[in-house]
Specification:
The chain is an alpha+beta fold. The chain has 13 helices and 33 strands. It holds the Pfam family GTP_EFTU.
């Protein structure tokens, strides 16, 4: 049965409170028993989803974590994505694996550039969005201004489901329109401790505003929400535990169950008997003690059973999956069965890669998982030249994860690293040392961007004959043009109209 699965991502700008909200949702689902800020002290405060060394040092999420929990008969698969724009590629691929998203907005800042970018990715895939306006217990912008900004900037109908009674120093709680009850702050920490005032009489000023917000915006419409045309808006404070219960109940009640997935011209329904899925992420060294390598598969259809044989499209021959994993933040357990919508981890040693389709019959290919042309290109310089082999292994692992892209020039021995954002370079150097014991630094390369070359073999051979110095191969062996400037790309496109210079490569 697939209808009790909810697979969703949390998207936001950095510092909007996404990691705290993730933690509180896990607490609600019983996946963790103590919030990170309760257990930890000072600089050690980090949610369980941020497990990588650089994430702990910088206080940011740089990989997409997967967490599964159950609540009242619903299985929730939560995918926590990097909020930092430098990791947009990983986030984009993660959003191919979800059926809905929660958009977290800081009440003081509203829609920020990265929020808007991530929303546009959701819109491309018609991913329905629930909006959570966070930090309403602090001073923030007027509620109507926030609601109108969401509606105007994202071209969405907004339907408030709650209303904050005051903000900042005047914060008195949150009114739930569905029940008419107010959740009020309690105790010295001013948290919501689980009691609601059902007979509350709102002060006149707030009563008028709350009524105006309820009648002035569209009513919630399930079809409009699931089509991506309307967003229900919830208000709260993840840190103080306001609005979290209502949010998780909304996901259970309204968020779509597993949706059909595109496979070329075919669309694969979750009701299909055959087990099918696709790899949207690969993560090496989640457990540094075991040097493990996990491929994350979004199951699209069928009932998976441990020990089943599935055929990866990149391999062409079946593999038995003996140790599939379900994730509970850093904890994991063996999955005996999994249904459409579930995310399972498959331990492997380089067999599975991002974009691979897994299926019983090997007759379909899921589409839509792209690589993007890098915007920063660097050379890697080893401190110890005898560690070339270890470096190659590390770069292969990290490029499979999507942290970086690696290009091997046709002429010359220095490999070129390509990334979308600067922070990825810091992650690369940090992980080379921490996980592979390889000390290296990066230096400027003469190239500004890269394009994948496509065309007839004869035209490609001709181009290669005259441009070998600017050509490289990616890790799949595909030909890549390394350009010194965007002008270079335009010039070569005009000169070679029979070739396509592509900024994306779809697996």
């Amino acid at each position: 049965m697939t209808s009790n699965r909810r697979t969703f991502a949390i998207i936001s700008h950095p510092d909007a409170g996404k990691t705290t909200l993730t933690e509180k949702l896990l607490l609600q689902g019983g996946a963790i028993h103590l919030a990170g800020e309760v257990k930890a002290r000072g600089a050690a405060r980090r949610a369980r989803s941020d497990w990588m060394k650089i994430e702990q040092q910088r206080g940011i999420s740089v990989t997409s974590s997967v967490m599964t929990f159950e609540r009242e008969g619903i299985t929730f698969n939560l995918l926590d994505t990097p909020g930092h724009e430098d990791f947009s590629e990983d986030t984009y691929r993660t959003l191919t694996a979800v059926d809905s998203a929660i958009m977290v907005i800081d009440a003081a800042k509203g829609i920020e550039p990265q929020t808007r970018k991530l929303f546009e990715v959701c819109r491309l895939r018609n991913v329905p969005i629930i909006t959570f306006v966070n930090k309403v217990d602090r001073e923030g912008r007027p509620i109507f201004e926030l609601l109108d900004e969401i509606a105007d900037m994202l071209a969405l109908d907004v339907s408030p489901q709650m209303f904050p009674v005051g903000m900042g120093g005047q914060f008195e709680g949150i009114l739930d329109y569905a029940t008419g009850a107010i959740a009020r702050p309690e105790g010295p920490s001013k948290e919501f401790l689980g009691t609601r005032d059902a007979d509350a009489v709102l002060p006149e000023q707030f009563a008028e505003e709350a009524e105006l917000a309820q009648i002035g915006y569209p009513e919630f419409d399930l079809e409009a929400y699931r089509n991506g045309d309307l967003t229900p808006v919830y208000f709260g404070s993840a840190l103080k535990n306001f609005g979290v219960t209502e949010l998780i109940e909304a996901i259970a009640k309204y968020a779509p169950p597993p949706r059909p997935q595109p496979a070329g011209e075919e669309v694969i329904s979750p009701d299909r008997d055959e087990v099918t899925g696709f790899i949207f992420k690969v993560q090496a060294n989640m457990d540094p003690n075991h040097r493990d390598r996990i491929a994350f598969m979004r199951q699209v259809s069928g009932t998976f059973k441990r020990g089943m044989k599935l055929t990866p499209s990149g391999l062409g021959k079946p593999i038995a999956i003996h140790s599939p994993i379900l994730f509970f933040a850093q904890d994991r357990e063996l999955a005996d069965t999994a249904e459409a919508g579930d995310i399972i981890g498959i331990p492997n040693h380089g067999t599975l890669r991002v974009g691979d389709t897994l299926s019983e019959k090997n007759q379909i290919r899921f589409t839509g998982l792209p690589n993007f042309a890098p915007e920063i290109l660097r050379r890697v310089v080893l401190a110890d030249p005898t560690k070339t082999k270890q470096l190659r292994k590390a770069l292969d692992d990290l490029s499979e994860e999507g942290v970086i892209q690696v290009f091997y020039p046709e002429i010359g021995g220095q490999w070129i690293i390509g990334v979308v954002g600067q922070l990825q370079l810091e992650v690369l150097v940090s992980r080379l040392e921490a996980e592979y014991k390889v000390a290296a630094h990066l230096e400027a390369s003469p190239y500004a961007t890269a394009r994948w070359l496509k065309g007839e073999e004869k035209a490609l051979d001709e181009f290669e004959k005259f441009n070998r110095a600017t050509l490289a191969r990616d890790r799949d062996g595909d030909l890549v043009f390394l350009a010194k400037s965007p002008w270079d790309v335009t010039y070569q496109q005009e000169k070679n109209p029979e070739l396509a210079f592509s900024a994306t490569k779809e697996r």
